[in-house]
């Protein structure tokens, strides 16, 4: 609303609103910390509206919401059933059976009804009061007339599966139980696979590995091994021709594997073997010789004018080999006209050679 003032004016928010007059917003009077608290009765509910609120008495009370008084339900004869006494309470009421009777399913019946009838019910049935009389009802897990009760096989009669996946349903007297399959365990809500490989509850042969799968496990031989019944035997890749080694090499089998080894005099890797030039590594050939490389080996060849001795470790000059001292012995025989001439030589290496004609 607009209020005139000397030389000016002011704007005021209407009741139930707050603001500067130009902008007004609703005040929730029903809020516990409201700036404009409501005036509803303690036995009433407050309902906020735009710019206002209203009060409504709670159930069991009557009034305009600002003043609420208790309703005496017991003044209405039909509030409680026959054989019951009505007791008024603030905002409510209570019904209780008269002396000698007990409450059962909305009515009061004699305490002796089921007590006298218990012998008529099956041991697995219970007596139920009903409209001043009784009937026998089989307990949960059993079915029948009440005078005759038999076990219910929940496992065979259940439309929906009672047990979780990977489990058996086992019927019991009056109930059932779920038992997880071998290789599974109950975690409280379902049957969970047991990882035997992780728990160590497995038996695999030497050189074999455990592989878990749902409900069990199996053993697989490690690379380089093959299954031989209950064992993992080494695969001889060399004899089976499974390994292609390069030229100038041979295959060597090992436990679970194999490798290629270059022949003596060769070097390389699994893809190539090359000749080693031993002459480049200062090998000790004898004096007066030269080193000549060959495939996989080398030779020491004596220089011209030198010859290799029997032990193949030295080269000697021809002069030393054939330097001999010659002696001539002339014998004249008196009874023969001819002359016999023999030549003897003694070599410098202490070998005695006798050659005719020299």
UniProtKB/TrEMBL annotation:
- Pfam families, A to Z: cEGF (PF12662), EGF_3 (PF12947), EGF_CA (PF07645)
Location(s) in or outside the cell: Secreted
Is the keyword Disulfide bond assigned to this protein? Answer: yes
Q: What is the lineage of its organism?
A: Eukaryota, Metazoa, Chordata, Craniata, Vertebrata
Q: Which CDD domains match?
A: EGF_CA (cd00054)
GO molecular function per UniProt? calcium ion binding
> What do the Gene Ontology cellular component annotations say?
extracellular region
Q: Which GO terms describe its biological process?
A: epithelial cell differentiation
Q: Keyword Manganese on this protein? A: no
Q: Which InterPro entries match?
A: cEGF (IPR026823), EGF (IPR000742), EGF-like_Ca-bd_dom (IPR001881), EGF-type_Asp/Asn_hydroxyl_site (IPR000152), EGF_Ca-bd_CS (IPR018097), Growth_fac_rcpt_cys_sf (IPR009030), NELL2-like_EGF (IPR024731), NOTCH1_EGF-like (IPR049883)
The residues forming a coiled coil are none
State the name under which the record lists this protein. EGF-like domain-containing protein
Which species does this protein come from?
Answer: Gouania willdenowi (Blunt-snouted clingfish)
Keywords, comma-separated and alphabetical: Calcium, Disulfide bond, EGF-like domain, Glycoprotein, Repeat, Secreted, Signal
**EGF-like domain: which residues?**
1-25, 26-69, 70-109, 110-150, 151-192, 193-233, 234-274, 275-316
